Amino acid sequence: MVDNRHATALVLAGVLSVLASVYLSVSVGSPHWYQYTSPPVRAEPNASELRALQDEFLDGEFDEKSASDAMFRMNGTLGLWWRCVLTPTDAHWYREPDPKMVMACVSFTLSQQFMPKYKEPGNHNSGEDLIRTYLWRCQFFLPLVSLSLVVLGGLLGFCACLCGSLTPALFIGLIHLLAGVFSLATVCCFLAGTDLLHRVSMLPDRVDGSLGWSLYLALVASPLHMMAGALLMWAARSHSQSYDRMTVYRVA
Questions:
Q1: What are the DSSP calls for 146-208, one per residue?
Q2: What is the pLDDT of residues 138-190, one digit of tens each?
Q3: Which fold has domain 4-242?
Q4: pTM of the predicted structure, to 2 decimals
Q5: Where are the domains of the chain?
Q6: Is the dihedral of CA 239, 241, 246, 247 positive or negative?
Q7: Is 108 within 8 Å of 82 (Cβ atoms)?
């Protein structure tokens, strides 16, 4: 028998878990984890150079240096699975008034997610940068692990409801705590990897970088998962203690 306090805690934990999962899913599928603000294009030579960067970015083989240069200079955005740049709808980059710009995105393939990072981006002879390589791979894996844990917790919770038992809530709470830790670790890996990239690939003049809304969504998902886990664990522990006291009372 579950009293009102425990039932309220379970409902709140479920709502928090769903919200956190939606936030994390949206952030993972969005390219707006980090964004660059570039100066406008006003001269034909500069426009021609940017056209070449755009063509290589959208149609060429992935190269970290060329992709980074394109994002730096074309108001690009970077996500866990996507990279984007702003491109004009026509060929006149420098025409007055300013041309209408649209966002063009390219997804990272599975093989590109596992490609090594080099100490000098674009220079394969400079040696592999193991820290950046594994930070990139971790930021790809960790959110998938976090979402998988939440799905596992949801299946266990469904089975517990069918059985009418609150005992699995303690284990489900631990799963949600781990999911929150992995969500937070994803953000930390992305920020560390981006900072290391900017150290080896300096931003051009008048180009600024800032955190995007997708990163903040993932950051919010982490405490929501943890709060859901804490509520589940409290409900399981409190219910267990109440059950033990009721058993002692009946024996007495």
A1: HHHHHHHHHHHHHHHHHHT--TTHHHHHHHHHHHHHHHHHHHHHHHHHHHHHHHHSPPPTT-E
A2: 999 999 999 999 999 888 887 877 776 666 778 888 999 999 999 999 999 99
A3: Butyryl-CoA Dehydrogenase, subunit A; domain 3 (1.20.140)
A4: 0.85
A5: 4-242
A6: positive
A7: yes
